[in-house]
Amino acid sequence: MATHYDVIVVGGGHAGTEAAAAAARMGASTLLVTHRRDTIGTMSCNPAIGGLGKGHLVREIDALDGVMARAADRGGIQFRMLNRKKGPAVWGPRTQADRGLYKAAVQDILTEYPHLSIAEGGVVALNRVGSEINGVVLESGELVLANAVVLTTGTFLKGLIHIGDRRTPAGRAGEAPSLGLSDDLAALGLKLGRLKTGTPARLDGRTIAWDRLEMQEADEVPRPFSFMTDRIETRQISCGITRTTAETHRIIRENIHRSAMYSGQIEGIGPRYCPSIEDKINRFGDREGHQVFLEPEGLDDDTVYPNGISTSLPEDVQEAMIRSIPGLEQVQIRQFGYAIEYDFVDPTQLDLSLAVKSAKGLYLAGQINGTTGYEEAGAQGLVAGINAALFASAREPVHFSRTDSYIGVMIDDLTTRGVTEPYRMFTSRAEYRLSLRADNADMRLTPKGMKIGCVGAARAARFLSYSQKRTTLSLQLENLTASPKEMEAAGISVNQDGRRRTAAEVLSYPDRSWDDICRLWPALVAVEAPIAEAVRIDALYAVYLERQATDIARVTSEEARIIPADFDFDSISGLSNELKLKLTRQRPNNIAQAARIEGMTPAAVALLITLLRKSV
Ligand code: FAD
């Protein structure tokens, strides 16, 4: 290990992996320091990648040449496109993953980066000169210097595991917590909070009565996450579905006072959208029973993850509760469920590049910023890694916008609004979701990534060829036209008004398929399926996108009005003291961010714009 790097990344979870890989892709000499090399890429909770909103993040990480999608393609054992009944804008690509294969894929991909070194060890402190961070101190006492440091310590900061009334300091099951760093962050003047999350028990699949369960299959043709994957080679499996019963609910209700979450032991706030089974019974009632997906954790691993029943009840209650569920009457438990509380840093103290505003050279990404989920962590890691590398070489930061990506939506939400509970991505958070689709992530972000320098040569070449074919086809579809009579003859019903329609127009109805237009223009049969599909979806959304374009242009121009980091909000006369305080505290990066602060009126925004113009 050298004694100086451009970038040091602390933590080899999902955020750390992407941060280290991104910094290395940018050409920065990068050190990833993590407790254990063999836990890099570990899925702490559910063995799955993607889902609603989360799948978009994975596609965006991939478009910027990140690791997660490629690893998911190698480890994915049940690919399913969620939300298919709705429009393609909100489809959610998801796969269950073989934990071992996924982790091996991540570790293998990280060996591809020549600028990346990996060291095992715990970081106990940040090294600083004034408020500038210039390295880390390891448990061994060794000091390693760097131009920028990215912290991605997940649930480890003062982590405390709860099972019933038993409490164990831990980062996650079986791993020690990280204690010194929280105090260091507090000493920098950062505001920390406490959150919690939970996980269910793990079951021995050989003791489940699978023949009595409803089974859910993978999609017939698994669709890869990564633009770089041609097809999924891994065997696909089914998972089982069962439900909690009246007996399950009785056991939980009678013992709820023994749950760590309800006995008053836990102060942290949990994820509302990923509730424990105790929460579900308490908040949503129990008449219908709650669905439980029994997800095998691997092809050669008979451990099963019961998705939907995370809990912090004591072990005897967990056992009785689980055995009251159909198919699980004889089940053996391999590891009990638990809740974990940990420190997080209020993310409003970060700017849009995920740099800590008050400590130069320090970046934070992942669960440490109050988010939950591998995908949210990975996406932040990527942004922090890119920006740490830019900072290390004295280049300007790169920001993502609500108008270009879910990544931009998440970072804007975190840094402008902060979190009151673990933040999770949803498609409903993205106001421009018709243009921010999973299917067009490459078109939206790969050119930006190429400009930034985080996209490798192989992807860039493949992308350029793809986008050229796509653009040519779109133009072709604008130029091909058919009369209503020709359309009728091809079996496409249309108003017989004599008006010729372009191929793009013919495709712009949800019930039209590529086969329909191939009947009119047979040469189109030769178009590669992924390109045909992409262009069909573009045609479907064309009208809405035109309408959205004006909004996007306005936001983009507001984002271009940068507020200097030392701007004196206090000096603005005509602004309420409350607003001055909020602006001073949150220090928005630009007018778009300032406009989203609660209480900002159009008049206040106009005033700010006028003063900014004067101050430049
Ligand atoms: P992690 O994946 O936790 O990785 C942190 C890494 O940093 C680890 O490798 C650790 O060894 C290393 N590290 C920590 N401190 C130091 C240090 N001082 N020095 C060196 N290395 C260090 N997500 C969901 O979406 N849904 C859920 O239901 C859900 N439930 C969860 C339940 C539990 C019990 C846990 C632990 C997590 C759960 N998650 C859930 C969250 C998901 O696992 C995380 O959001 C995700 O892993 C966060 O990624 P990360 O990279 O920020 O941190």
TrEMBL record:
Required cofactor(s)? FAD
List GO terms (cellular component aspect). cytosol
Gene3D superfamilies reported for this sequence: FAD/NAD(P)-binding domain (3.50.50.60), GidA associated domain, C-terminal subdomain (1.10.150.570)
Q: Where is the signal peptide?
A: none
Q: Which UniProt keywords apply?
A: Cytoplasm, FAD, Flavoprotein, NAD, tRNA processing
List of residues binding NAD(+): 270-284
Q: Which SMART domains match?
A: GIDA_assoc_3
Ranges where the tRNA uridine 5-carboxymethylaminomethyl modification enzyme C-terminal subdomain domain occurs:
539-610
Positions bound to FAD: G11, G12, G13, H14, A15, G16, V123, S178, Q367
Q: Which GO terms describe its molecular function?
A: flavin adenine dinucleotide binding
Give compartment(s): Cytoplasm
Q: How does it assemble?
A: Homodimer. Heterotetramer of two MnmE and two MnmG subunits.
Protein known as = tRNA uridine 5-carboxymethylaminomethyl modification enzyme MnmG
Source organism of the structure: Rhizobium glycinendophyticum
